[in-house]
Specification:
Radius of gyration: 19 Å
Number of strands: 14
Strand order of the largest sheet: 5-7-4-3-9-10-14-13
Structural class: alpha/beta
CATH topology: Rossmann fold
CATH class: Alpha Beta
Helix content: 25-40%
CATH superfamily: Vaccinia Virus protein VP39
CATH architecture: 3-Layer(aba) Sandwich
Oligomer: single chain
Largest sheet: 8 strands, mixed
């Protein structure tokens, strides 16, 4: 595994359609992508846009609320004594590192364990837009499964580094080890983590037990969101799950992206649907794949009504025009 060789290969193959206006603004940090900077990626702006930032007071308050809700034993058991990326915004309990983002990832892990892992054996996970890999680390530390991460090369560089430092004994498949742009069944079975950009193809007979997207589809162009949903619908196992946490409304791509308009087909049942923990403008939606028609469309209608409170009034007319012309 050569992290920078994989990064350079995927950057050379870049499908520019995949990068929205939201992410193009981060192109100015290209000079930071070097082995010297990777060690400190959480304090030199390499993880900007992928890493939650909270004040020390906020982090401690969120942590205490998490402990009160889930119990100290559970929370501490999902922390580590490693500060990969050398974040400067953390505090410690004993030898364990805690930062704002990890509080949320532990909460999400708990939701998944209660609502997904307790119900089925999860052999294959695919996380779309997983950032630098913090949630993946927490899941894989407790659950033995094949873990596929699909993200832009800049994020894949960070997650490859972060996860390989946490799991030095596991096997990683990166772009530099793949012939062409195709991930075979043999590739998947031979490795623990498969980390590729979205323009790579994956063997068609693979079935995924759990798809995850947390707070990144809301920053994608809608055409890219549709492509990902086509991918999810094709690869999801019957009775498989989709863990979706995104804003009701966001327009950083240049036009409105609404969770209620994500292109779910009809074959989903809602397992859980509620505002995301401590993030009132974000919704947590867990759905399960069915062969017959489920209740997802009714739930999206409810989410649309909930989301109206977060649509800025000054752009509501533009939003209506956009919906008429392009949706």
């Amino acid at each position: 595994m050569d992290i920078f060789k994989a990064f350079k290969k995927s950057m050379g193959e870049y499908d520019s359609i995949q990068k929205s206006k939201h992410w193009k603004k981060f192109d100015q940090r290209k000079h930071l992508y070097s082995p010297e900077n990777l060690e400190n990626f959480r304090n030199n702006k390499l993880s900007l846009g992928l890493d939650d930032q909270y004040s020390d007071k906020e982090q401690k308050e969120i942590f205490q609320d998490l402990v009160n809700e889930l119990g100290e034993e559970y929370v501490l058991s999902n922390l580590t004594d490693k500060n990969i990326g050398n974040s400067q915004t953390f505090f410690k309990v004993g030898n364990l590192f805690i930062d704002g983002g990890q509080n949320f990832h532990i909460k999400w892990l708990h939701e998944l364990e209660i609502l997904v892992f307790s119900k089925t054996k999860v052999n294959y996970i695919c996380e779309i837009g997983g950032g630098y890999g913090s949630l993946a680390q927490k899941i894989r530390a407790k659950h033995n499964c094949k873990y596929i991460l699909i993200d832009l090369p800049e994020a894949n560089l960070l997650s490859s580094y972060y996860l390989s430092k946490h799991f030095p004994d596991l096997k990683f498949l990166l772009c530099d080890q793949i012939n062409g742009k195709f991930v075979s069944r043999d590739d998947i079975e031979a490795y623990d983590f498969i980390i590729v950009p979205p323009w790579y193809k994956i063997v068609e007979d693979l079935k995924i037990d759990l798809f995850i997207n947390t707070r990144s589809m809301m920053e994608m162009n809608f055409e890219v969101i549709k492509k990902y949903f086509n991918f999810i619908h094709k690869y999801i196992m019957v009775d498989g799950f989709f863990f979706n946490i995104n804003r009701y409304y966001k327009s950083s791509v240049g036009y409105p992206i609404k969770l209620s308009e994500y292109p779910y087909d009809e074959n989903w049942d809602v397992v859980s649907s509620k505002p995301s923990w401590k993030q009132k403008d974000i919704h947590q939606l867990i759905t399960q794949r069915r062969l017959d028609i489920g209740n997802i469309k009714e739930e999206l209608t409810k989410i649309r009504e909930m989301g109206k409170a977060f649509v800025p009034k000054k752009v509501s007319l533009f939003s209506r025009i956009w919906n008429i012309l392009f949706q």
